[in-house]
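If you are new to this repository, start here. Below is one unmodified record pulled from the training split, so you can see the exact layout before writing a loader.
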Amino acid sequence: MSAEPIPENVFANDVRRGLKSGLPIVISSAPFGMLYGALAVDNGFSVSEAVWMSALVFGGASQLVGIELFDQHVAPWLIILSIFAVNFRHLLYSPALGRRISHWPLFQKVLAFFLLTDPQYAEAETRGQGGDEVSVAWYMSMGLLIYVFWVLDSWIGATFGSLIADPHALGLDFLLPIYFFGLVLGFRKRPLWLPVVAVSATASIVAYKTVGSPWHISIGALAGVLLAVVMPVSGREHDQ
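And here is the target side for that same chain:
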């Protein structure tokens, strides 16, 4: 049976909402993307290599880890493993998102998981919990907007970053962590939010001091997941 066509007004509204959801992320991630591009060229990448890394990896923190390790001339397998460690949290995001888009065709699912980022996941969960469908039009509009501008920002940073003597000195990379902090606060009404956040943050800090970067990201995430697994919640809360 073929899927019923989506009414034009519903499709257009979802596209507008997706673009509206993605716009704050585009603005807040722009300095981070340009900083990445500038640092990539500063660490020996060509402009095209820096842009292709953004287009293929599409992960801000993992890209920064990759170029830092590249500059230290470490083994390629260690660079790949470190990037995987930073992005390990996406293995946790994917099942949660998967239940929202289980009815999508396979190609659309593959593209959706490629476009999956922290804010994309948070917005999808918020939309789903509010009773709204995570539609293809909404998700792809938001995800593609973020993706296109991330690659564009990387190109701008790689092309013009040499005009800045010390990109780190600008301190523009603080905008994205602030935005992520806002995303975390958006889940504050969920059960076990405070203990999970506290345990994740504590474990991440301890891991950063002992094991080091980038493993502290995955260790902090796993600590929060384990706490959520062992702490019971009521049936009503669990269904939210």
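Two things worth knowing about this chain: The chain is about 75% helix and 0% strand. The radius of gyration is 19 Å.
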